[in-house]
């Protein structure tokens, strides 16, 4: 589905990402982990850019339109499926079919507020579910999520993850919940200081190892040894993407 080779992304002088190789295969469920600032968002935003026509992104920034309703914010996920006049009509007077479809997604996401409510009046958890709903309404093959359940309680997060996994054949998700990563994902990619230091079958890991990955630098030696494709070929020319 996607192969990244020698990817370097810089913000000014700051190298946010420096990855030798990373492949994503159709059908995989991939969890991305790492400390704050390790490059996770930079990586998944790049993946989204590369695979945009067939992927839906639920980003940390959400990008909701504050004074528009829950319905309109979710409906925005489908704007490019319809002609402009159909979209305009739904902006002014929502039609019954999209209302029904958005209503079903809201139910799936346990969003029990009225669809007419402006998102500016929602709680953090409700807003996050609206952003999630907008991504689900795209009905794409690939779901890319950047901590999409961070504002929800863990039990609800588990339930909603089940929907996301059922609705998408391929999932790439940043998360900090190690139990979730191990129970529901095939593969775990770990970043540290912009480098991929872990890329391993989830079955080979346990919660203790992953917690050590966050806390203890010595645990890294084991992981690097267990991970494929972490040896760098410094002599290769590198394509640098600068912002
Ligand atoms: N737009 C930007 N301008 C400047 N620096 C940036 C920008 N975006 C990210 N960075 C820097 O790049 C590095 C990686 O950031 P990134 O957001 O990818 O990390 P992250 O692992 O997703 O962090 P977190 O878990 O806190 O969300 C950080 O040092 C960050 O400060």
Automatic annotation (TrEMBL):
Keywords on record: ATP-binding, Cell membrane, Membrane, Nucleotide-binding, Translocase, Transport
One matching Pfam family: ABC_tran
InterPro entries: AAA+_ATPase, ABC_transporter-like_ATP-bd, ABC_transporter-like_CS, MetN_ABC_transporter-like, P-loop_NTPase
Topological category with respect to the lipid bilayer: Peripheral membrane protein
Gene Ontology molecular-function annotations: ATP binding; ATP hydrolysis activity
Predominant location category: membrane
Compartments in which it is found: Cell inner membrane
Domain (ABC transporter) ranges: 2-218
Gene Ontology CC: plasma membrane
The protein's name: ABC transporter related
Species: Shewanella halifaxensis (strain HAW-EB4)
């Amino acid at each position: 589905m996607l192969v990244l080779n020698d990817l370097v992304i810089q913000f000014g002088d700051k190298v946010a990402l420096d990855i030798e190789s990373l492949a994503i295969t159709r059908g995989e469920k991939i969890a991305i982990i790492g400390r704050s600032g390790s490059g996770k968002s930079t990586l998944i935003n790049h993946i989204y850019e590369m695979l945009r026509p067939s992927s839906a992104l639920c980003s940390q920034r959400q990008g909701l339109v504050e004074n528009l309703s829950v319905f309109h914010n979710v409906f925005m996920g489908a704007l490019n499926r319809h002609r402009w006049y159909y979209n305009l009509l739904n902006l002014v007077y929502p039609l019954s079919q999209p209302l029904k479809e958005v209503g079903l997604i809201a139910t799936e996401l346990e969003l029990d507020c009225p669809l007419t409510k402006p998102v500016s009046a929602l709680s953090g958890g409700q807003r996050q579910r609206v952003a999630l709903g907008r991504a689900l309404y795209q009905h794409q093959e690939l779901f890319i999520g950047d901590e999409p359940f961070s504002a929800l309680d863990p039990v609800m997060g588990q339930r909603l993850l089940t929907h996301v996994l059922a609705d998408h054949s391929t999932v790439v998700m940043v998360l900090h919940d190690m139990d979730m990563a191990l129970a529901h994902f095939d593969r775990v990619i770990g970043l540290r200081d912009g480098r991929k230091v872990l890329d391993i079958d989830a079955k080979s890991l346990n919660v203790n190892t992953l917690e050590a990955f966050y806390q203890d630098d010595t645990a890294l030696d084991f992981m690097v040894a267990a991970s494929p494709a972490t040896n760098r070929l410094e002599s290769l020319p590198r394509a640098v993407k600068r912002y």
